Every structure is written in C-alpha cells, then in structure tokens.
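Justification of computing resources. Each target in the renewal requires a structure prediction run like the one illustrated here; the chain below, 160 residues long, is used simply to show the kind of job we budget for.
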Amino acid sequence: MAVPKSTICIWYDTDAEAAARFYATIFPDSEVTAVHRAPGDYPSGKAGDVLTVEFTICGIPCLGLNGGKAFPQSEAFSFQIATDDQEETDRYWTAIIENGGQESACGWCKDRWAVNWQITPRTLTEAMAAGGDEAKRAFDAMMTMGKIDVAAIDAARRGD
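Resulting structure tokens:
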C-alpha cells in the first residue's frame, strides 16, 4: 500500500490502537491498516509499546500517535461525519457516547479519548448552504440541540 500524500495525525495519550479499532467498528470505509511498535524507549513509553497506528475513518487516512499527556485534545480539531437520516445520526452518536464519550452541543460529542466529533445530518448542511431565512431558521433550531434532530431541522427549513 502506498503512503498517502497527506495523513491526519491524532495525538493520543496511550490508546491509539484501541481508538482506531473502535472507529473501524462504527464508521463505514474504516479500518486499522498497521500497528507499529517503538524500536526504543521514548519519553512516554518503552521499547515494544505501540507507538503509531495507521487507520482510516470513512476513507480518510489517519495516524494515531501514542505521545503521552503533553498535548491534550481540544475542539480545535474534530471529525465531521455527514449523516443521511436520523437513524444514522443516532447510530454514530450513541456509539460514541455509550463507549465512554460525552455529549456536547449543536451535534458535537467527544469520544472516550477526547477526540471531538460533529455528527452532522446533511439536511443541516444543506440548510446552511441555502442561506437566507432557511439557514437562519435551521441555525436557530440547531443552537438548542445536543444531538441533531433531523425532523426538527427539516421543520425549521420549511418554516413550520
């Protein structure tokens, strides 16, 4: 397999492999492709510990780095996952939350490794792209939500 020109590198304390394997179970076109162990001791680990994990999330190449606690995750980085309906939205949201994650606002949640996710129904993205009153109504509705309610966004788009 050729090395991709660009890869997202995600810093984990120690659990990059567990995170990658979890993502591969819930998102389509996702898999763990390689696990690399440290050839020597390093500041947050020992020789033989998992150092990096190559994986994909929805076809996007990623590299998980077990770098220790030096750099915590923040909302400055998130994965945005587009969903087609409420069932898909619920499935991803629930998988993340029930695996030790945390709910947030406006479609955002955080997994147990503190990586941030935006579970975003396409109807919301389409409403925002439409602009004008439709975007404003959908935006106002979204601002009251944790997990996005597709029916409520659709109603807001129509002006119901």
